[in-house]
Amino acid sequence: MKKLIIFDLDGTLLNTIADLAQSTNYALSTLGYPTHPESAYPFMVGNGINKLFERALPEGEKTEANILRVRQHFVPYYDMHNADKSRPYPGIPELLEQLQSRGFQLAVASNKYQAATEKLIVHYFPNIRFKAVFGQREGIPVKPDPTIVEDILALTKIAHEDVLYVGDSAVDMQTAINARVTACGVTWGFRPRAELEAYNPRYMVDCAEEILHLLTR
Predict the structure, then answer these.
(1) Residue ranges per structural domain of the chain
(2) Domain spanning 17-81, CATH class
(3) 80, 81, 122, 217: most buried by Cβ count inside 10 Å?
(4) pLDDT recorded at residue 217
């Protein structure tokens, strides 16, 4: 039986795409670059915000200096607006409450920068006592590098075989493989089912309630 459930944030616990799109477009527009429709952003996110900005910048403008310029405008705006339209996916608050009440340890492993990860978790899930809430931290490689999962395991003293990692993208499935933990792909997030299936996760679920069922059956 699993003891620790690690969740990705964007596309897994929260639908954050509208606020990410709005904030990136604000930064691009401020700098005079063309913007993108919200529908383009699910395929830009998932590897940290610097990679998001690189993907959003026009060809020929994807330099480290320009990425930093976009970041300088994005972060203050996103810090103010990251809960404007973002919402938990259906059934997620209830799932977390049920898992907590049944004694499972819960954690978050995100490629969103640390301050925003913490803010969103506190805002949307104030009653959930996560054992760790880790986002993108200075000097720590982003997923699919397994360091973020290894840090959570070191903190919780949970063995690899007792962990379920839940996410919505190829990055998440590869993270689980790299960290040697059991993967569960969710189909309600930013990426298509086929992307998840390519990594052969142990579980695939179409609604939050299914996660509770597979953990308690």
Answers:
(1) 4-15+86-216, 17-81
(2) mainly alpha
(3) 81
(4) 84
